[in-house]
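Working notes for the structural subgroup meeting. M.R. asked for a predicted model of this chain before we commit to crystallization trials. I am recording the input and output together here so anyone reviewing the notebook later can reproduce the run.

Input as submitted:
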Amino acid sequence: MTNEEAREYCGELREQLQLADDDSLSFDDEKSFCIQSPTSYRDLAFVSRELAECAIDGGLLWLQLWYVGAEGVMEVGQHIIESMRKATGDSHDLNAAPAQLFAQGETLELQCALMQVLGNGWSGYLIPADAKYVFGFRTSHRFFCYSDSSSELDYLRSKFQPWLSIEVTN
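Returned structure, recorded in token form:
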């Protein structure tokens, strides 16, 4: 999806989810917590799997800053995502279409894409299809879990329990 298509998609979600002019997402009565992304490949794979399973019915991965990072590494992540697209007949590069809609049953594909996002420190959002919560990724190798529901955040904390020891407050 292009940025415009991603904005339209987000605009059709729950009323409580707001899209600002700078393409940031928030909830009316937002609650959140933050986790430092793991650095080991194994932990990265496990965290990415948990994130993908939080979007079991599909969702939108919207990259907003993916073209920065260590030269020779960042290009690999971009190539992996673009190659995944080509395998399904989609020839759009990330510059033209920085968002990807994942369908129900594409959790492995989403996990692979999330490994690139977390591993490279790209910023963007994962918006599950039901939009009960949103994940915000930052270039500081952190991700935020946002919701307007305390019970949803409790659910997310339970899923990410192994990584809460590296939870950060900002």
